[in-house]
Design a protein that fits this description.
two-stranded antiparallel sheet, globular
């Protein structure tokens, strides 16, 4: 299944991207108040670096799908994250660059915030915090 992801850079067109996760809706845990079939944009930090996250959550038939991208505001290049599951209240997303895992996010996503931490390939840990600035359908 394909869906359109919001491009984080206003000068770039929307991109078609493949879903990174799907599960039967009956098997998926509560989605922490996130509205189905919606796109959320968050602004915040990873450590001291300013970032923008875009989170999409889709439910079609009995399938739930999640997509998360982010970019460092100074660099402006989107990084797509791969959903790997949950650990309690935290969603686990892996970051891959050039086919190599370069980090892991353990984050809690609500309609208001993203909180948690990121561990890079050097095993350095950074606090993640972002506030929702917009959402839509």
């Amino acid at each position: 299944m394909m869906f359109t992801a919001l491009s984080l850079n206003a000068n770039q067109p929307l991109k078609e991207v493949k879903n990174t996760h799907s599960a039967a809706a009956s098997e998926a845990p509560d989605n922490d108040g996130i509205q189905a079939n919606a796109l959320y944009k968050f602004k915040g930090t990873i450590g001291t670096h300013r970032v923008t996250f875009v989170y999409e959550y889709w439910v079609q038939s009995q399938i739930r799908e999640e997509q998360l991208t982010y970019m460092y505001d100074k660099i402006g290049k989107e990084i797509y994250l791969s959903y790997k599951g949950r650990n309690g209240k935290y969603r686990i997303f892996k970051e891959y660059v050039n086919g190599r895992c370069t980090g892991t996010f353990n984050i809690n996503i609500t309609p208001e915030t993203i909180t948690g931490h990121f561990v890079n390939y050097k095993n350095q840990r950074f606090k993640v915090y972002a506030k929702c600035i917009s959402y839509g359908y």
